[in-house]
Design goal:
The protein is mainly alpha-helical. It is built from seven helices and no strands. It folds into two domains: about 70 residues, no CATH class; about 55 residues. The termini are far apart.
Length: about 120
């Protein structure tokens, strides 16, 4: 079972990395899923992921506080708006555009309702 969870963690992490450059493929949920899978299957991979410069702080903030830093929220909002905006320019079917707008609003609403993790609070 540990090998299956580790394999799923690796696949999830790869999808998260691909999601950095592919519009509409989310990065954060896949990276958080990989961290959860690694926590249950491979302490070594979990430790490695938590110590990554780009993903580690985001995962730690989520695991400890169930929130995001203000700068991460800003970056997420910008990337969501850019990727959905580009998709809306490319798509010519009206119902697909409407679906994209609905997805964008839901995602922006969810991200912006998450608690903000303040750096001052992290120093305690």
């Amino acid at each position: 079972m540990n090998h299956l969870l580790t394999l799923l963690g690796v696949l999830s992490l790869l999808l998260g990395i691909i999601g950095i450059v592919v519009p509409l493929l989310p990065t954060t949920p896949f990276v958080l899923l990989a961290a959860a899978l690694f926590a249950r299957s491979s302490p070594r991979f979990h430790h490695w992921l938590l110590n990554q410069r780009h993903f580690g702080p985001m995962i730690d903030d989520w695991q400890r506080y169930r929130g995001m830093r203000r700068s991460a929220k800003r970056r997420a909002n910008v990337m969501i708006l850019l990727s959905f905006g580009l998709s809306l320019l490319v798509v010519s079917i009206d119902w697909v555009r409407l679906l994209l707008i609905i997805m964008m609003v839901i995602l922006l609403t969810w991200i912006n309702r998450l608690p903000v993790v303040e750096p001052v609070a992290l120093k305690e």
